Prior knowledge:
The structure holds two protein chains of two kinds. Chain A contains ten helices and ten strands. Chain A is an alpha/beta fold. Chain A has a six-stranded mixed beta sheet, with helices on both faces. A four-stranded antiparallel beta sheet of chain A has the order 2-1-4-5, with helices on one face. The mean pLDDT of chain A is 95. Chain B starts with a helix and ends with a helix. In chain B, 47% of the residues are buried. The interface between A and B is medium-sized, with 28 and 18 residues.
Amino acid sequence: MSLLEVKDLKVAYGHIEALKGISLSVEEGEVVAILGANGAGKTTFMRSLSGLLKPRSGTIQYDGHDIGKARADAIVGLGIAQSPEGRRVFGTLTVEENLMLGAYTRSRPEALETRKQVYELFPRLLERKAQMAGTLSGGEQQMLAIGRALMAKPRLLLLDEPSLGLAPIIVKGIFSALRDIRASGVTILVVEQNARMALKLADRGYVLEVGRIVHEDSAKALMASPEVQEAYLGKGH
Amino acid sequence: MEIFFQQLANGLTVGSIYALIALGYTMVYGILKLINFAHGDLAVLGAFIGLTVITSLTGAGAAPSHWVVILAFVVAVLVVAIAGVLLELTAYRPLRHAHRLSAVVSALGASMLLENGIMLIWSPQTLTFPEGILPSTNYVIGGVVLNSTQILIVAISFLLMLALYLYVNKTRFGTAIRASAIDQDAARLMGINVNRVIVSVFILGPALGAIGGLFIGIYYRQAVFDMGWIYGLNAFIAAIIGGIGNIPGAMLGGLLLGLFNSLAGGYISSTWQEAITFALLILILLVRPTGILGERVAEKV
Ligand SMILES: Nc1ncnc2c1ncn2[C@@H]1O[C@H](COP(=O)(O)OP(=O)(O)O)[C@@H](O)[C@H]1O
Ligand SMILES: [Mg+2]
């Protein structure tokens, strides 16, 4: 059985249907990428998985639970954590407070244990642990958003555009950390406009266009596909 | 100089009461971006409940015992906290995703309901608080009269504010409250039950407000059903002066407003007090539109 199994998911904002029937699965230990242009519905999909949006129809099965109607905080408890689009760190809280909030559903000793690992993965955060998160650079805030999600010790890590607005050198660092996270056995579902980086990391990928999945293949095959190359890997990407 | 110190002592007392009540406005605003217009009336409810407990357990002419006074505070806090939660569940939660104006109308409606409810249950007249609820010994220090009731009110208010400050800044749930005030969806992604956080704010704010309301009754020795309007307004202005949404700001704003009111009342004219309050509000908003400790609100909205 897949760790995550989404069937015919439809999500709407009022009359606007943003997801028009998405079916997708993620196996334990996999890294799966979702590619798609701005407005395709990637963030809507991620927010639905985390319970921030309620599906109009369709099912979301995670580890045997039907989480389509579950509350967002309960979903975190089941082992799904998200680093949201735009990072959304708590700007007037310190780096350390942000991290500890990531482990809100866990006990303090467990949290301290994971915090050590997060600081090893992102030593920059350790240097800045007493600083307000709002004073960090964009790259550091992204590290914090990912580290904060890891504090929940997720089985499934959701990453919504971890490279958004970051300089190429910073993006490289972030993706190298993601490879470490993957090596530690965490299953990752990553949404990206930076298709090249995402496909290099991923095992498989889906391509989303205006609320529908239009391609699904191994990352290698997607990278080689002329259509994907034209739309997502051309110049400027 | 004696007048100055006398007014300082009075201002500190009134200011710490304003601060207690201001905290409720600021905490609710911090999380819901909503002015809970019924908050002043909740504080008044606390005063009336406390008065009822005291008068019904104390023989005529006798001074209330310590235990009765403590019980009065406990009952007032409990009842008002429950009223606060009911208010959130019935007046605000159903409108969480409605237009902002709907919530404002609902808040004003709740305020009128509470005011009229208090009038019907108790009295349309001003009720008098008995003497000696808190020990009332006068100490004369350098010509300034300090009353032990004043000292107790200031001391208890400071202790309560310190406790709230530590709770919000040093505990796990307190951090969850601050996170929910910054970004509710991000807080949900941490596994925080934001609805529970909102309910907790509607317990903490009204509980402190009830104590503030009871202090008003004890200090001025009277309470009237519609006084929530004027005390609520002052506490609300205190919250704005300090920077609405900011907890230390509400404490600072309350103290400043109390001191300012009292000094202005003593030196200029007490009939002009309200005008002076608004002048202070306007002045501070001109110099610092976000209040003294407020953040740049524009970034949040
Ligand atoms: N809060 C919202 N209200 C109304 N429409 C929205 C909202 N958020 C997103 N949309 C619309 O839903 C579609 C998908 O948006 P989104 O999921 O953010 O796409 P992506 O993350 O792929 O850029 C877009 O057409 C967008 O305009
Ligand atoms: Mg997006």
